[in-house]
Amino acid sequence: MVLRGYVPTSEETLQTLAALRLQSLNSDFSTHAPFPRLEELFPPHVLHARLPPLPHRPPAKCRGARLRAGLLAGGLWGQALAKQRAERDQRLRGRLREEGAITMAAIVEKWKLLQGMGRPEAMAAYVALVREWPGFGSTLFDVDLQASPVGPGPQRLWLGIGAKAVSLYKPGEPEPLDSFCYGRISSFGASDSSTFRLSVEDRDLLFETSQVEEIAQLLNTYLASAGAQRLPRPQEPPTSPPTLEPTVLPQGLCPAPGPWQHQPPVGSSHS
């Protein structure tokens, strides 16, 4: 999850995590130690984000313009454009290699500072850093929110499902936009094969996602572990929305109103 960018933290912390991973894998720094590739230690998207954006190419406004563009693309002008694109791609690859070398050097310097740290200690330090994120332990899903209490939709968000609550995050942001403990969820299920519905008190949230079944199964698991009533699976949508009786939930499961501050127990790997 760290390498895929699902643990929002600073670049300095990401470098420290990479150094701790090297210490865990190889023990103390040595020029003879086997060295993983950078993408096995550090999120690649962070390096790509440093590169300049690709120039915007405006669309052709009419058929005549598209025809002229097609004729030009087939001649000397098209060859010149292809050459420019190749040169630009080569420059971007060079920049990416430079950024990667700078980042790897910073990671190695941090690795050298861990001299004498044992593998269990390095692993414990790694997990302690990741646990600083309030969403630690949650399983994150990429979703597009179609009906939103926090702003106009659709919005690309992370749907975080943890032991205590379901939370919505803006990708890369450490604090949730909103969070719902299980006592507030009245029903959930599949509206269709790519739309997941979550009913929270008097609100219905619709998420476009390719992982409808995975989300429903995980919610069922947490509800069952809390002693709650199991709701229908997404492939068996109810004819009418089922209701989750609040009395079946253990006392104290729902935190007091306000920002979610609870950390779910360690239940998933973030390395």
TrEMBL record:
Protein name per the record: MYO10 protein
Gene3D superfamilies: 1.20.80.10, Pleckstrin-homology domain (PH domain)/Phosphotyrosine-binding domain (PTB)
Location of the region described as Disordered in the Swiss-Prot/TrEMBL record: 228-271
Transmembrane portions of the chain: none
InterPro entries: Actin_motor_Myosin (IPR051724), FERM/acyl-CoA-bd_prot_sf (IPR014352), FERM_2 (IPR035963), FERM_central (IPR019748), FERM_domain (IPR000299), IRS_PTB (IPR002404), PH-like_dom_sf (IPR011993)
Gene: Myo10_0
Pfam families documented for this protein: FERM_M (PF00373), IRS (PF02174)
Domain FERM stretches: 1-233
Pro residues bias spans: 234-244
